Each structure stands twice: as C-alpha cells, then as structure tokens.
User: What shape does this take?
Amino acid sequence: MSRSEALSFCRICMGSCGMVVTLDEERRLVDIRADREDPQTLGFACFKGLRAVEAHYSANRVLRPLKRMPDGAFAEIGIEQALDEIAERLAAIRKAHGPEAIAGYKGGGGFFTSSAVTLLIEWLQALGSPKAYSSATIDQSAKMVTAGRIGLWPPGKPTIAQCEVLMLLGTNPLVSQNPPFDVRNPVKRMKEAKARGMKLIVIDPRRTETAQFADLLIQPLPGEDVSVLAAILHIILANGWEDREFCEANVADLETLRTAVAPFTPAYAAARADVKAKDLVEAARLFAASGLNGIAGSSTGPDMGPFSNLAAHLIEAINVVCGRFLRAGDPVPNPGAILPRYPRRAQAIPAPRWWDHGPKSRIDGSGMLAEEMMTGVLADEILTPGEGQVRALIVHGGNPASSVPDQRKIVRALRSLDLLVCIEPTMSVTAELADYILPPYMQYERPDLPFWLYEYMIYQDEAYTRYTPAVAAPPEGAALVHDHEIFWGLAKRLGIPLTWRGVPLDMETSPSVDDMLAIAAKDAPVSLDEIKRHPRGLIVDGEPQYVEPAEPGWTGRFTVMPDDVRAELDAARREGEQNEDGRFFYRLAVRRLRETFNSVGRDLPTTRKRVPYNRAYMNPDDLAVLSIGAGDEVEISSARGSVVAVAESDATLRRRVVTLAHGFGGLPDAASNRGYYQDGVSTNLLLDDERRETINAMPQMTGIRIALRRAGRVKVSHQRPSS
Assistant: This one.
C-alpha cells in the first residue's frame, strides 16, 4: 500500500505545532510526527497533538448528524433535515419569546477553527441576541477586566526573547503551552532564555516543570495571590524601585496605590501566604531593582482564584509601575500577521471600562467583554423564568456540562432547555444532553490558519502565519459539515443576513472554507494565496513598524488603584483576617496535565492508559499525617459538596495543597456515568457559582478550601475495574 506525507499543523492550542502527517492511498491518517524543519516550533509536538490519529478514528467520534428521539436515544438524520428542523424550532422560540431567548456557547473547538472563530457571535447579533458565552469568561477574563480598569498601552510589552527577567504566577507554560510565555516549543525556548541569562521568578504552590528553571521559587498557599502581589508592590514602592519617570508621565494615581498596599508588609503577606518574607523582598528586588527589563504575567492560577480580577490587576500594576512596555522608537516585533496593523503610540489609553456600555445580564447586571456575556451566570439565565430567559443554546465546540462550576446546576439547566444543539466531533458529556449533534470536520480534514483571534497577545517576536489545506479524508461513511456552514445554513433558513468579520456573506451560495479564511485574512499585508505558497508558513513582511511618540499634549493615564479595585483590596484583606473554618484546612488548586487539554482527548486509548482518571495529588507529609497511602481513596469535601479520588504522592507540591485536574467526570447521577475508575470525577462538584466576581461574574475555581479524609472503597460508582 502506497503512503504519502503532508505538512500541516496542530490546532489543539495556541502552539500551532508544525506536523508531518502520513497518509495511505485513501488519504487516511496512519501516522503523525513533529516537523523537525518547522521554523517556529522547531520539531516539538506535545503528547496531545501526537494522538491525532487516535482522535480522528476514535470510537467516541460522531460521524453523522444525530437527533434525540422521544425515547431519549439518538438516531441519524441528514444535515439538511437537521438544519431545517433546528431553524424551525429557533424561529418558533424567537417569535414566542424574543431573540434573547436564543444563546450560544463557544469552547476550544470553536476558538481553534479559524474559518468560524467569531461566527457564533455574528450569527447571534444577526438574530438580535447579545447572549454569546464562551469558556474565555471562566478562564482568564480577569485580564480583560484589568485592561478595562487600568488602561491600555498600544505598543504592548517586550517579547519573551527580549526579557531579561520574567515573573510567572500560577502558570506552567512548559506543559500548557500558554501565554505569557512563548508557546512555540516552550521547553527549548526556556532553555535558550536561561542560556542567555534570563532570570526567572516563579510563584506557584507546586514546583512545576517551569519552576525547575527558576532562579527564585515561592510556593504560597493557593488563593493568596493578592497578598503576595500586594506585598511585592509594597516593597517596590517603599524602596523607590518604581520607574519614576514613566510613572510621572503615565500614571494618574501612584500615591493612591502606595497607600492602598501599605498594610501588605512582607511580614503580613508571608503570614497570610505561608511563605518567607525575605523571598518576597528578593522577588521584588530581582524584578524591579536589578536593572533587568522584563514582564510579570499569569495564567489560570490567579485568574481562577478568589479575588481573581484584583490579582490580575495587581500583576499589571507591577508592570506599570516598573514601566515594562515598549517605548517610542522601539521596533514593534510582531505588528500582526492576520489582524490589522495600526499605529502604536507610546501613550496610555485611559481605562475604557467596556462593560459599562451595552447589554446587561438580567441576573446580576454584569455587562459584556469582547462582545460576550458572562458564562458565570449562564445557568441562571437558563433556569430563571421571566423575560429574556434562555430557552435555546447552540454550543460550538465546547463542553459546558464539564467546564462550568456547580456541575449539577449547569446540567440541570442544560436539561431544561427547549433546544440544545452541539457542534461537536465527539460524544462529550454536553453532547449527551443535546437535541441535535452536528459533527464538524476535525483538524486535519479542513483547511485552516493558526489561531489569530488573540494574535496581539501571543508573546512571540515575529509576524508569522501559515495555511494548511485539508490533508486527510474523513472516515469512510462520515457525513460531516464545516462549522461555518451550520451558521450560514441556519441564517439562510431564518431569513437573516450574515456577516463575517464585517463582510456580508452571499446568502444564496454557501462560502467555502477558503472563502472564509480569505475574509479572515483580509487585513493581512499579504493575500491568502501568497500565504498558501509557503507550506511551512512565512514571516509576513510589510513596512517595518516602530513605536511612535505620544500625541502632542496627550494626557491619558493609567489608573493603578481606582475606587472599585481599592474596595476589592480592602475586602480581600478583611476576609483574610477572619478566622478560617477549621474544617477546611487544605486548599484545592488547578493542575494541568500533559495528556489532556481540559476534556479534549480524555477518552483516547493511549491517554486512558496513562491517565484513566484524575488523581488527587498531595505532599507525602500530608499523606502521612492523614494516614493515607498512595493508591488509597480520599474524600475531598468543600462547602458545596464532596468527591472521592485516588491519592497520589507528589513531593513537588507544598503542604496543605491538593491538586485535582479539571475536565474529568461523566454526567452526575446519570446512567451513562461509568464511575470514577472509568471517567474520573468532576472538580466542579466541589465548586459553586454563587461567589462571583463583579464585572465578569467569574466563579472561584481554584484556591478552594477543602477537608480531607481517607475513604473506604464502598461506592459502586467508584468501583475499581476488574483485573
């Protein structure tokens, strides 16, 4: 049997790792490997990306559209009939209850499909509904809130290649391939950065893979990010280590910040976070007073913890007071490959507070970020009767039944909908609840561009992009549909015009994937046809761009301590000084696994062999105190609920911490739930959605106070598989 090879790239995460795929004579995937000649990812591919052959031919893959029948079973249905029926039901809901009764939710599958990444929002807008939700607002939306409250600096920050010092909080980019580090082969780029002398400060409860490269590691209790960050600001300002010239020109309220963080002395923060005061001083000195340029950044740790908006704000305040931005005359290293280029002036744009304008949630008054409403209130928007109640939900490549806190509540909400449609390639726990499942082409079966939506936020120093054709044929007998064709087909049936990136679509003839990609790349300095001519991608040339001076007479300033941030800081301090509930001595923390990306790929045979369920990792000394052995079942309880998981010893964790990965577990209390030893357990059973941040309604998803005890093997749902 003849075989051939083709170049492509992975679309599971922002890394976009270059791949070489091997195909048989029928264009079926038979093998995949990292492309050693890829100019960006330099021969790297992670465990998840190398499982693509399994993913494409998984027994859990949905290959033909499915409709739920009256008895609850699924039956195959043609795509045209499915779209006809869905459109008819949507039209009836819209007529009876108004457009706001129709909502959408986008997850990773939607984000990493470049030909349709914003189409759910534009489709809803065409319907007249603002109710677009996504995984972004239960992930790191604190960063958008921070930009809205502190202000913007159009030129941006130095790239990782320019950093002489880097402070990372609650992030493990060597596993997650996630900004604020360079996502292109992060291990190699970390080694290169260290070899050229970059200093690394890591603040994380665990000695992570990233922390193994740290010059200074601080391991606070989860949930104490605010204390640590406020103390670092206190130390910087108390010692005069701020960039005074930059602050005088660009900061409106430095003295207000100085006063606000004054109570957060090193001794106070050390006691709160259970760290050494001298380490906090050293972190501040190394970052702010060593003469090194660089940035501070975070990921899901602070952004999912208590007072997450405040924690993100304090991180950015550290960058602001230290002046860690590109300046007039500096080259703009990555002015954009797909997104439009624009003049970058060295001036602070005052806090825009986008959420103060536009539609508001009827539940809590929260507004919108990046044209989305807040996922933290989605369950209530569905369950709460009245005008504007959500009755239909289109899920684009997401798994809210697994990802949204208080799992029983969100599952109850999804079950109550009049219509639930999932655009999803596998039978996820959300798809199990759907009325219709519309299976899209998977990544190597469709043309694509790398993830461009957050292009300006990716810390790389080149305006690089690439194109991949569809290199593999779908499995035999499959009846798949491209993501954009679903939204276009529904819009046509509903009689509404549809635009894509501001360009009206022809509503008589469905655009191709390449048509959609050409529109996505309409602002690029080169055409899609030119991008196609470079199989391993290209640096998009154009006029070199440099940071321009501020406009004459510009008066815009950063606001590092506005009134609402000050109120949150005071509240965080008061809460920390209250007596803790003695029942909940331990803290639950976020943990990334090499083998899965949230719930993606969890059911693949090779993944299940390595990670059949999510273990509860603990420091060995804590295990000894509790008389728990590795392999024993441990009951983990929060104020919301309890779960049982297998304990695992992990000396990289500090004491009083348990890490249990998100993205596991079946539907709670459902016949399809195969039990812990088959599916793992959902951490969201321990979380509630009642304590939510203002502005973005972000629930607390890490730093949860928990109790632990050794559990007996008594629950049938947790029965070990027979040997």
About this structure: Residues 714-723 have pLDDT under 50 and may be disordered.
